[in-house]
Amino acid sequence: MTTTSHEATATSLLRFATAGSVDDGKSTLVGRLLHDSKSVLADQLEAVEHASRNRGQEAPDLALLTDGLRAEREQGITIDVAYRYFATPRRRFILADTPGHVQYTRNMVTGASTAELAVVLVDARNGVVEQTRRHAAVAALLRVPHVVLAVNKMDLVDYAEPVFAAIAAEFTAYAASLGVEDVLAVPISALAGDNVVEPSAHMDWYGGPTLLEHLETVPVGSDPSSEPARFPVQYVIRPQTEEHPDYRGYAGQLASGVLRVGDTVTVLPSGHTTTIAGIDALGRETDLAWAPQSVTVRLADDLDISRGDLIAAGAAPAPTKDIEATVSHLNERPLRAGDKVLLKHTTRTVRALVKEISYRIDIDSLEQRSGAEGLNVNDIGHVRLRTAEPLALDAYHDNRRTGSFLLIDPADGTTLTAGMAGEAFETVRTTDAPDASEEEDWV
Amino acid sequence: MTTATDSPVRAGDSPFALSHLDALEAESVHVFREVAGEFERPVILFSGGKDSIVMLHLALKAFHPAAIPFSLLHVDTGHNFPEVIAYRDRVVAQHNLRLHVAHVQDFIDRGVLRERPDGTRNPLQTVPLLDAIEKNRFDAVFGGGRRDEEKARAKERVFSLRDEFGAWDPRRQRPELWSLYNGRHAVGEHVRVFPLSNWTELDVWQYIERESIELPQIYYAHERDVFARSGMWLTAGEWGGPRDDEPVERRLVRYRTVGDMSCTGAVDSDATTIEAVIAEIAASRLTERGATRADDKLSEAAMEDRKREGYF
Is residue A213 a part of any domain in this protein? Predict the structure, then answer.
């Protein structure tokens, strides 16, 4: 072991989320990832040991590492998404640790929205249960590119391959039917440490990577050169100084794709075309920028461009005032047809009307429930919206950043709903019994 | 673990890969520009500590070649390290920035605040901070808080709404999805913004190295007259230390965090260069707050309680 830490050489960043209930051993797994990657420092461990002793527990309760709020520690539950940071020789990680039961859907949707990988935990003794399918559906809904099924507690099923194989096959088929692009199943024991960081000595029949090896090597991000460029304008930079009397740059972060000096681009929603005259990468002039870099773009023509406009290359979305979207409702106040809201899409916020709650999606059975009066907190549904001004939306399927939006209460600014343009699943089944004749608990 | 798995996944594997520092920088710059685009009167809380210095550096890059469209606010406890105040004033002059200073001493003199028995003034910063926010009608206040610092901060949003009393209610936070930050607020309310939310202590130091950012010298090892209190090395100062039973000795130390002299401890260190500091932090078995901050040792929920009252 050298004195300089491995952390200093980590060069790429992976954001991932974990889903699973306390009973599945999620806290133990997260604790082991942090502990075995030496990301829990002595004073943190000491504080956890001290607090555990005060509660009359013999072993340190690693859940106390992530339960940061007093109410959480008092009630022994996790209320909110907690972000955790650790590093290995190969990579830096940001873990969105989402609670298993309280406000479950809202928190997992939040954690998954920025994740490139989701770890779904199951108990090997129970296999794929309703909650597992729900976790897979939320990961698919948010278009998390990589999903890992961690089949935990293999020590309690005698490390038996057939148990694992049956669970893995069932889950993989289900995730594929939801459109999840990449699924890997790993047999683990978080408690004993099998296949979490170190390979298991008990499961010779498993030839795949440990969970951490997979986290370290899964590709981060997509290939920007294969995507159309999307550059939402955040801010117009005009120094108006003696040194820079005429400088006019459009500041933003590339949502997808690549921009090159000389490229022809379209400005939306106006539809004007121009070419890129220059790119400034935070003070350094460059010929090329790609997602997710933050840069400043200068254009050849003097157009009327401001915050909220989209500079696009490649096939540009047609600006529209009519939006169909899959939504996850986040607030205690129900979302109903006729509600007037604000819609925040990239850097543009416009007024919008909820024209119709088309249907609610039963996230366990993936059935559409039509005739919904409104969407309650933690409901997933499909809505039609009409906006006051046209928006250049991509389908969320194609672009997580330019296909997503928030609905906001104009009265007090509360974030009401997370929206994803287009259909969530290709395989949503419709029920034959529509309308209010169905007795449901969501009314 | 075999040696074959120890090779880092290099950013250079794809022509379009970003290093973790590039990714964090792009995200933070995005946050600064969102605030510039959506708020009327933003301000950067600037203490002269390394996190606020990195914040300022990112803001300067975000709006280059224009000036940053924010002013700075320093809550001066009156127990500051003189090296840090000198650094602050130099930076303000160099970049032609506008600096507001709120003095804790003024509030003590007016009888609004009273000195604490333990002499620390860090918890006294909240009232002058909220007063400055109200008087100047700041609607967005950038802070250098990081989620890796402390467990209550791990649940903090990038955009964190505060009511007219400056209070943080962790159970009523707005869900924050994708990179869509909701900064809507009523008159009298403001939003705390944390552009470094996803950075770790090591990221901050690696970025300081990469960008060749100058820091106050107290971050590097130097000889100093110190005395031991609560398991930390504190600097003798006008605020009341050391007591008669606290012998002063000269040691080679450096600071991992910079706050009020009365509660910020130095660590034994011979790291005189940025490379040595990074090696030391990477090998450290203590968090920076655990090692050097008495204010967080007050109770299990010390940070949460201060945040609820309007502290950063």
Answer: yes
Together in a domain, A426 and A379: yes
| pLDDT category of residue B213 using cuts at 50, 70 and 90 | very high
Q: Are residues A75 and A180 in the same domain?
A: yes
pLDDT, tens digit (0-9, with 9 covering 90-100), for A96-137: 988 766 567 888 999 999 999 999 999 999 999 988 998 999
Inside any domain, residue A442: no
**Do residue A212 and residue A228 come from a single domain?**
no
Of A42, A253, A404, the CB nearest to B30: A253
Q: Do A11 and B14 touch (CB under 8 A)?
A: no
What count of CB pairs under 8 Å joins A to B? 238
Instruction: Using an 8 Å CB-CB cutoff, list chain A residues near B284.
Output: 41
Query: Is A148 found in the same domain as A108?
Result: yes
Residue A366: pLDDT band (50, 70, 90) is: confident
CA distance B139 to chain A (A): 14
- On whether both A277 and A354 belong to a single domain, the answer is no
Say if B231 is an interface residue toward chain A (CB within 8 Å).
no
User: Residue A59's pLDDT is what?
Assistant: 63
Name the residue range of residue A392's domain: 320-437
CATH number at residue A413: 2.40.30.10
CB contact under 8 A, B147 and A42: no
With CB atoms and an 8 Å threshold, state whether A344 touches B278: no
Q: Are residues A157 and A174 in the same domain?
A: yes
Q: Give contacts of B5 with chain A, Cβ < 8 Å.
A: 89-90, 213, 216
For residue A259, being part of any structural domain is answered with yes
Chain segment A206-252, per-residue pLDDT in tens: 999 999 999 999 998 888 988 999 999 999 999 999 999 999 999 99
For an interface test with B, the pick among A67, A94, A97, A349 (most B C-beta atoms closer than 10 Å) comes out as A94
> Looking at the domain B18-202+303-308, which fold is it?
Rossmann fold (3.40.50)
3-state SS, chain A, equals: CCCCCHHHHCCCEEEEEEECCHHHCHHHHHHHHHHHCCCCCHHHHHHHHHHHHHCCCCCCCCHHHHCCCHHHHHHCCCCCCEEEEEECCCCEEEEEECCCCCCHHHHHHHHHHCCCEEEEEEECCCCCCHHHHHHHHHHHHCCCCEEEEEEECHHHHCCCHHHHHHHHHHHHHHHHHCCCCEEEEEECECCCCECCCECCCCCCCCCCCCHHHHHHHCCCCCCHHHCCCEEECCEEECCCCCCCCCCCEEEEECCECEEECCCEEEEECCCEEEEEEEEEECCEEECEEECCCEEEEEECCCCCCCCCCEEECCCCCCCEEEEEEEEEECCCCCEECCCEEEEEECCEEEEEEEEEEEEEEECCCCEEEECCCEECCCCEEEEEEEEEEEECCCCCCCCCCCCEEEEECCCCCCEEEEEEECCCCCCCEECCCCHHHCCCCCC
- The answer to whether residues A246 and A391 belong to one domain is no
* Out of A20-24, A94-98, A178-182, B8-12, least confident range: B8-12
Q: Is B269 near chain A, with CB under 8 Å?
A: no
| CB pair distance less than 8 Å for B34 and A405 | no
pLDDT surpassing 60 at residue A439: no
Q: Cα distance from B92 to chain A (closest Cα, Å)?
A: 19
Over 50: is that where the pLDDT of A30 sits? yes
Confidence of residue B12 (pLDDT cuts 50, 70, 90): very low
> Could you say which of A296, A312, A328 is where a domain stops?
A312
Closest-CA distance, B19 to chain A, in angstroms, reads: 5
**pLDDT confidence tier of residue A357, bands split at 50, 70 and 90:** very high
Q: What ranges do the domains of chain B cover?
A: 18-202+303-308, 216-298
Please tell me the distance in Å from A51's CA to the nearest CA on chain B: 8
CB contact under 8 A, A283 and B206: no
For residue A405, list chain B residues with Cβ-Cβ distance below 8 A: 180
Chain A residue numbers touching B171 (CB-CB < 8 A): 69, 71, 79-80
B210 contact A CB<8A: no
Q: Is residue A443 part of a domain?
A: no
Q: How many domains, chain A?
A: 3
Average pLDDT, chain A: 87
Q: How far is B187 from chain A (nearest CA, A)?
A: 11
What per-residue confidence (pLDDT) applies to A75? 58
